[in-house]
Amino acid sequence: MSKFFVPLRLMKKLFSLILFLPVIACVSAQTMMPPSQANVVSGAKKQEIAVRSWQIDPRYGIADTCGVDTVITSFQDNTPVNNYSIANSWNGNLGSPLQSKIFFDRTQKTDFIFSQPYDVYAVTVPDVKFFNTKTPYANLTWRSALPKYQEEDYFRALFSMNINKYLNVGGLVNYISGRGQYKLQNARAINGGFFVSYGGKRYAFNAVFMVNDFKNFENGGIDSLQEDEQPNVSEIRLQSAVSGYKNYTYFLNHKYSLGFDKERKLENDSVVYDFVPVTSFIHTIKFEDTQKRYASNNLDTAFYENIYYSGGYTKDSTKYQSLKNTFAITLEEKFNRVLKFGLAAFVEHELIHRANYSDWLRFYNNYENNLKVGGVLSKNEGKTIRYNVSGEVALLGRIIGDFDIKGNILTSFRLFKDTVNLSAGAVFNSVTPDFFYEKYYSNNFCWKNNFDKTLNLRAKARLSLQKTGISLGFNFATIRNYIYFDHSALPAQYENQLQVMAFDLTANLKLWKFHLDNKAVYQLSSNREILPLPDFAVFSNFYFKTKIVKVLTIQLGVSCRYNTAYYAPSYKPATGQFYVQNEEKIGNYPQMNAYVNLHLKRVRFYVQLSNWNSGVFGGNYYLMPHYPMNPLTFQFGLSWSFYN
């Protein structure tokens, strides 16, 4: 078991690096963009500390401004799992595979199906925040829990500094060690890397190197959880199984812009010239190297019906590699005076390599070349209506004929003393099933299928009242040839139409210093045997928030997560996939947390009793069949930001 966790020597190196980075920053000269272009995140009375941050579209490199993590309210809930969805299927131990119970919250960050259970923790290119800072910026976050030797540790370090006003470098480290309150439940997740951005007059680039490395023991769940029974003595269903997922990403997006210099007068009547881009030529290269592993020292014949290849153990591995080159050209909207909208077009080539192993047997090496073309029409200027429409089609390769059409529209207007935001969007696509849905070999599962393309139509709409804090949303999907994992944990295709509908409500209410923040989702599936979903899920947070002596913010509250009972999916460790079952209903249990959250200048701190009601409502607190959530747990955490 000691080999499973990060060696102490490596941890010392990581901490030494984190401590040394501010020293490097302090001796570096810094310059900064004008404060008018920055998000002010903290500051003293005489000097504001400004940090601008953004995320990019990986294909076009278009920046989308985002906020810096300085959240004060409900800092105790700011974890990967809670940020992903209000209701999830997992084993309750941080770092373990997960699937949202809310259909429209489910993501697919890569084209590799075995990556989906780790989407909640993985950092991909769209997740990376780039920075421009006046002074070096760093944030350290640490979360832990009791009882000792069964705690969950979560450490996060973020650092960013400007070399000059154009060039910024930064790094990110996330480390999760969930030892688990049930036997052989350990989970370890490490991800992080480096990011660099440069924004010159005509030339700009964003570069990322990121690693995601996850390992977790697979105990197969427990047979039963008796009342008053200690979690670590419950009987588990697997004894020596370990899953792993590792991903390396290398990314570079760079562009050269043609434009002109525009005169701008300053307050002192002096004149400066700003470069205004009109047309940009863009190149993006992205390489991903991903591997999913499953190993067991025993054959586990009591858990798996089929053992195919190994004489005394299991060692399965699936590999996915992708090299993608994209060339694009954009025409800025504000200078397209004839049509008054922005234009972009691209051509993209992708080389894919797949391999499948079990023990020493190599079943196949598969290579695939795909070619796509597409474009975007957009209007982002103006306050009344903004929209974008994009389309792409595959011209060559295994996915020939695949297409994807998207459209979004947004409008805002004043209503009394509030601002109303109305948005709507739609997606229509045809997708060739992932290669591993059709062909896969391992020691416990083998399949060979010939699935049709999946036809997917989705629509969404949202109404938000900015000041009131109320948001109403609607999502609808109709899917033909939906692919899922059946009762035997094998991929299957539902050839008829499958519809899903969901309504969600966010309402943040306030009376004096008392707050009640709510998010609720009501969803319907047209075929619950193929796609089971809880009808209703809610997260509610009631708290008292005040400020003491003008510097210390204190928040005391109780939060609750709840979903109705339904036939929640089961989890199969050998493939890391969630599959349907109709034997046991899960849900109808309120998980309640009591907490105190404090904020003092640049420091945030909390203590929390998680699932404190586990002894009050009995022991039926399962997240999915055979996987209960953790019982009463004492949690605490600290976050500290540095600007110097």
Largest sheet: number of strands, sense, barrel closure: 22 strands, antiparallel, barrel
Helix content: under 10%
Q: Please, what is the CATH homologous superfamily? A: TonB-dependent receptor, beta-barrel domain
- Backbone shape: globular
Oligomerization status of the protein chains:
single chain
What average pLDDT do the residues reach? Answer: 88
Write down the CATH topology.
Answer: Maltoporin, Chain A
* Rg calculated over all Cα atoms: 26 Å
Note the beta-strand portion: over 45%
- Number of continuous helical runs: 3
Low-confidence stretches: 1-48
CATH architecture: Beta Barrel
Total beta strand runs? 34
Distance between the termini: 41 Å
| Count of domain modules | 1
The helix/strand class is: mainly beta
CATH class: Mainly Beta
Description:
By secondary structure, this protein is mainly beta. The chain has one domain (8-643): Beta Barrel (Maltoporin, Chain A). The protein contains 3 helices and 34 strands. The protein has helices at 8-26, 80-84, 435-438, and strands spanning 39-43, 48-56, 63-65, 88-89, 99-100, 130-133, 137-146, 152-162, 167-178, 187-199, 203-218, 241-265, 271-296, 314-331, 342-358, 361-379, 385-396, 403-415, 418-431, 439-441, 446-448, 454-465, 470-485, 491-511, 514-525, 536-548, 552-563, 570-572, 577-579, 591-600, 603-610, 622-624, 627-628, 633-643. The strands form 6 sheets. It has a 22-stranded antiparallel beta barrel. It starts with 7 loop residues before the first helix and ends with a strand.
Architecture blueprint of SSEs:
Layout: H1 8-26, E1 39-43, E2 48-56, E3 63-65, H2 80-84, E4 88-89, E5 99-100, E6 130-133, E7 137-146, E8 152-162, E9 167-178, E10 187-199, E11 203-218, E12 241-265, E13 271-296, E14 314-331, E15 342-358, E16 361-379, E17 385-396, E18 403-415, E19 418-431, H3 435-438, E20 439-441, E21 446-448, E22 454-465, E23 470-485, E24 491-511, E25 514-525, E26 536-548, E27 552-563, E28 570-572, E29 577-579, E30 591-600, E31 603-610, E32 622-624, E33 627-628, E34 633-643
